[in-house]
């Protein structure tokens, strides 16, 4: 998720939730190929996150060819093409969900990305595909943070999309996408026009799964899932191979805990979702501080403002949460967060005391 699932967040999710797979924020192919170092930040990751998939977007086929080389060179476990972003900047220029209107271009992008993966696997280097010196330097810098150089093996190509542009047209759209032979198609059950309004249409996702899977392509359903219990129910009802959880993981890396039990349960006829992990207040605060500290180390103190929304997301479901949230979104460092936690923890644990204590001072 753009602006959300950065490397620090994904690392937290990996160690506290262990999802089967994570995706980077979407990254523009133009930024990748021109070496805009700030934009390339979204392609940083840690080993703990694996398998980690790089998501890219854009609309120029040659840039998809080049970007696929870069994604492979950076050692990602897969390459995902965004064909679902509804934001005006992206979709109205013909990228993201805009591609639903240009199916031939969508297929061409898949073809070029696959060719890029194949040629890189066969030994082609970044210098050979004409990347500028600035891009090579930026990618070299990113590579220097990786544990080991990538192994030249073919990585899977996948697509993430929606059920249509301004109407549900998943039948035609999935028939088109299968021609591009991606390994996985992830479907968010809303149209572009819906943005995030209304409810995800899981019947449309189920229909798509039944049409796509006979081609040997896996289908991941997506939309409005808040827990692993809901994931299991969706998998059962819709027949998808798996689900993606987005907003349900905000301030809640624990949402992914228990996947092995769910997987086992899905093999049987019985259905009894295991209880969702409910972190104690101390655990919540500890993980919030850990996340803030990691974010600061990875991104530098000057970007701490971007951490504030995460702090707000952790802060719910306990006494004084709203008051604490209002202060957390004005913090500038992990030290500020620790100071606030120290002030609130004792008060929040005392459920009887419903007044905001005078000892809590705003920044
Ligand atoms: C702030 C935000 C940023 C998002 N950025 C991306 C993105 O970069 N790539 C992507 O495929 N989907 C992106 N999405 C869509 C989510 O991945 C997901 O499809 C959508 O939120 C529905 O799933 P959910 O109900 O589990 O959140 C974003 C959603 C939000 C709310």
What's the layout of helices and strands?
Layout: H1 7-16, E1 22-28, H2 29-34, H3 37-40, E2 52-57, H4 61-73, E3 78-83, H5 88-91, H6 103-121, H7 133-144, E4 157-164, H8 170-179, E5 184-191, H9 202-212, E6 218-222, H10 228-238, E7 242-244, H11 259-267, H12 281-299, H13 308-314, H14 321-328, H15 334-349
Helix pairs in contact: 1-12, 4-6, 6-8, 8-9, 10-11, 12-15, 13-14, 14-15
Features:
15 helices; TIM Barrel; 363 residues; alpha/beta; seven-stranded parallel sheet; globular; 2 domains; 7 strands; binds flavin mononucleotide
Can you describe what's shown?
The chain has 363 residues and is an alpha/beta fold. It has two domains: 7-267, TIM Barrel (Alpha-Beta Barrel), CATH 3.20.20.70; 281-349. Helix content is 44%, strand content 12%. It contains 15 helices and seven strands. It has helices at residues 7-16, 29-34, 37-40, 61-73, 88-91, 103-121, 133-144, 170-179, 202-212, 228-238, 259-267, 281-299, 308-314, 321-328, 334-349; strands spanning 22-28, 52-57, 78-83, 157-164, 184-191, 218-222, 242-244. The protein has a seven-stranded parallel sheet. Strand 5, helix 9 (202-212) and strand 6 (218-222) form a beta-alpha-beta unit. The chain is globular and about 60 Å long. Residues 352-363 have low confidence and may be disordered. The structure holds flavin mononucleotide (FMN).
